[in-house]
Amino acid sequence: MTEPPDFPPAVPEDKPAAAKDPETGALQADRSPVVQPMIEVLPAGVPEISAEQVAEDRRIAIARNDDDVERELRGRSRRGFIVAGISAVAGVGAWEWLRSRPKIDGVEWPMRRTLEVNEELSDAYFRTARLTPTFPRSEITPERINGGLGLNPAFDPATWRLRIEGGGQPVSLSLADIKALPRREMITEFRCIEGWSIVVQWAGARLSDLMQQVPPTDRQGRRADLRDWKSLPRYVSMETPDRGYYVGLDIQSAIHPQTLLAYEMNGRPLTWQHGAPLRLAIPVKYGVKNIKRIGTIRYTDVRPADYWAEQGYDWYAGH
């Protein structure tokens, strides 16, 4: 039986083996430094600090920091109050100054000038070839009644006539005359200036087709050519029969191909609430321009009165 090999005794990992003298082979004493535990020795005369004293010092430091924060907040609050007060005074002063300015068409002139700048920008951007989006029949939304100015429920549609002025002798047309013009249909979005909108199907005649039949006169007093809109009168005015409501249109919007004299809404004749027998459907404008129950159409070079523009709204009212 073979004896197991004689292995050297295991040496603990944390204690290195003793080194041998390379000449005599004798073990040498371990000269590695002895690690002594670190003991902090306070200088003579320095008292020891108790845990209670440490806690008290921390409490005092926190209290001082809170005082600094509170002072900073008080300072900021005072500054904020002063700034807010100055701003409020300035705002009231500016408002009083604005309200004391002379008015143009019922609106203080600085506000009216701002609206006119918006109008000029919209007019420069507008193109009769640019159409408002149309929608499929499936996206038609429920009808909504808005505005009743100029709509007397006792009005008899059988007595209605459309009067056209500004093309020489005034012309009077019946609803049958309007329906004799080419019928147009469109499904567009009706947008109210209050912020809501609905999708509506309109049917009627283009205002431009009516203007072809009963044209305005140009600046030389001759029959105007709608293909040269620069020779046309600058505006078109519309009123209800009782003039309870009235709007003005720029000529480019009037001859836009989506501007209809509508007699049907969502496949049915107009109700009196929606302007029977004839109303304007002009999707390039907000709802305030979509006058109901048109009684008079007038061509003019003088910018016509507009009901809501006189209440402080934008005369152009495009979107």
Could you outline the blueprint of secondary structure elements for this entry?
Blueprint: H1 51-99, E1 103-104, E2 107-108, H2 109-125, E3 162-165, E4 171-173, H3 175-179, E5 184-191, E6 197-206, H4 207-213, E7 235-239, E8 246-250, H5 251-254, E9 260-265, E10 268-269, E11 279-281, E12 296-300
Parallel strand pairs: 3-12
Antiparallel strand pairs: 1-2, 3-4, 5-6, 6-9, 7-8, 7-12, 9-10, 9-11
Question: What features would you describe in this structure?
Answer:
The chain is an alpha+beta fold and 319 residues long. It contains five helices and twelve strands. The chain has helices at residues 51-99, 109-125, 175-179, 207-213, 251-254; strands spanning 103-104, 107-108, 162-165, 171-173, 184-191, 197-206, 235-239, 246-250, 260-265, 268-269, 279-281, 296-300. Strands 4-3-12-7-8 form a five-stranded mixed beta sheet. Strands 5, 6, 9, 10 and 11 form a five-stranded antiparallel beta sheet that branches. The chain has a two-stranded antiparallel sheet with strand order 1-2. The longest helix is centred in the first third of the chain and has 49 residues, at 51-99. It is elongated. The model has no long low-confidence stretch (mean pLDDT 80).
